[in-house]
């Protein structure tokens, strides 16, 4: 094995290195860096890229990635791991879903064509893309607000070929939580862009996005290690995950949207089977009267409830308040 370099980070075989992939300058002259950790094994093998905190409200993903890298001994590693622990440090420092300065969502087609001379968020995307060079597999770590369940999204329709599709599904199941097909939407996020280049990629969604609860962090940590085990990068077989996992072949359906504004009351917990037509949430005004009942559009499940990213369960009309998935027909 040779030294492994990513941007300014360099790890010798059997060692780790940490630092910044690059930095952006703010108006007061201060520099904000994109932090990363690289681990270089003693034998050749895959290069696993793990990205967290693309959205600044999803702190739990950053902690899970840090803990996973802490658990990996590079002296027992085959291949390399590149972990971007905070892809959008500007959003993270303000607990914002998007970059506060230009209000752009980093999880967009910005990754398709890096623009190092573009707008601020475009420049952040170009910095993050430095970590993707040479990657063979990828985990894009995200999180939902409570109440929610942990799960993995994958999109086989965007995979380069059948082999990539099969391997993506195998690794998604290795993560150890419920696996859901996201559908055939055009490539948007980093995950989808990398599909077309032949990578196996998935989006892991944890619970309790803004908070560090040990049980939620543990799911993300175990998932990263399980994928590394399934790739033959670290010793052992994938281990069972703690908590809820729904077995089956699932596809995403969409979201329910409010027609009235008020307090969002969750009436059915994520991860429980809900028949079509059953009330899953209600909207109540500030006098306590029920204004609207939101009903399940299909036999299936919800994976999370919430209003606008980073906000409370006081919602306006026109707010998408949950995610629905079902067993494949």
Characteristic key phrases:
Aminopeptidase, 11-stranded mixed β-sheet, 6 helices, 20% helix, globular
Characterization of this structure:
This protein has 329 residues and is an alpha/beta fold. The chain folds into two domains: 4-230, Aminopeptidase, CATH 3.40.630; 252-327, RNA polymerase II/Efflux pump adaptor protein, barrel-sandwich hybrid domain (OB fold (Dihydrolipoamide Acetyltransferase, E2P)), CATH 2.40.50. Helices cover 20% and strands 31% of the residues. It has six helices and 17 strands. The strands form three sheets. Strands 3-4-6-5-7-10-8-9-11-17-15 form an eleven-stranded mixed sheet, with helices on both faces. A four-stranded antiparallel sheet has the order 14-13-12-16, with no helix packed on it. Strand 8, helix 4 and strand 9 (178-181) form a beta-alpha-beta unit. Helix 4 runs antiparallel to helix 6. It is globular and about 65 Å long. It starts with a strand and ends with a strand.
Helix content: 10-25%
Q: SSE string, helix = H, strand = E?
A: EEEEEHEHHEEHEHEHEEEEEEE
Question: Tally of extended strands?
Answer: 17
Determine the strand fraction and express it as a percent band.
Answer: 25-35%
Radius of gyration: 20 Å
- Determine the oligomeric state from the structure: single chain
Largest sheet descriptor: 11 strands, mixed
3D shape: globular
Number of structural domains: 2
* N-end to C-end Cα span: 47 Å
The class by helix and strand makeup works out as alpha/beta
Mean pLDDT: 92
Report the CATH architecture of the largest domain: 3-Layer(aba) Sandwich
Strand order of the largest sheet: 3-4-6-5-7-10-8-9-11-17-15
Number of helices: 6
User: What's the CATH H-level homologous superfamily of the largest domain?
Assistant: Zn peptidases
CATH class of the largest domain: Alpha Beta
CATH topology of the largest domain: Aminopeptidase
Q: Can you tell me the residue ranges where pLDDT is under 50 for at least 5 consecutive residues?
A: none
């Amino acid at each position: 094995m040779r030294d492994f370099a990513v941007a300014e980070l360099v790890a010798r075989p059997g060692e780790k290195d940490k630092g910044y992939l690059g930095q952006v300058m703010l108006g007061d002259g201060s520099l904000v860096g994109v932090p990363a950790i690289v681990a270089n094994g003693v034998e050749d093998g895959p290069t696993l890229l793990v990205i967290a905190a693309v959205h600044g409200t999803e702190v739990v993903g950053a902690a899970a990635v840090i803990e996973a890298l802490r658990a990996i001994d590079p002296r027992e590693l085959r291949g390399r791991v590149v972990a971007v622990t905070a892809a959008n440090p500007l959003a993270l420092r303000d607990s914002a879903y998007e970059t506060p300065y230009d209000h752009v969502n980093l999880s967009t087609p910005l990754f398709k064509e890096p623009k190092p001379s573009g707008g601020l968020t475009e420049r952040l995307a170009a910095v993050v893309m430095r970590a993707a060079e040479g990657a063979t597999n990828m985990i894009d770590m995200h999180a939902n607000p409570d109440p929610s369940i942990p799960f993995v999204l994958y999109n086989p329709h965007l995979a380069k070929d059948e082999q990539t599709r099969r391997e993506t599904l195998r690794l998604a199941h290795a993560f150890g939580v419920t696996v859901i097909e996201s559908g055939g939407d055009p490539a948007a996020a980093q995950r989808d862009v990398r599909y077309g280049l032949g990578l196996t990629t998935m989006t892991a969604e944890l619970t309790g996005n803004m908070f560090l609860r040990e049980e939620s962090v543990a799911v993300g940590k175990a998932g990263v290690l399980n994928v590394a085990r399934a790739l033959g990068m670290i010793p052992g077989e994938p281990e069972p995950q703690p908590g809820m996992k729904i077995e089956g072949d699932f596809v995403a359906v969409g979201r329910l949207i409010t027609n009235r504004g008020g307090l969002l009351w969750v009436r059915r917990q994520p991860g429980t089977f809900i028949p079509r037509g059953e009330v899953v949430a209600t909207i109540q005004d500030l006098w306590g009267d029920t204004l609207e009942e939101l009903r399940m559009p299909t036999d299936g499940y919800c994976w999370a409830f919430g209003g606008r990213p980073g906000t409370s369960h006081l919602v306006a009309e026109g707010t998408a308040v949950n995610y629905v998935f079902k067993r494949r027909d």
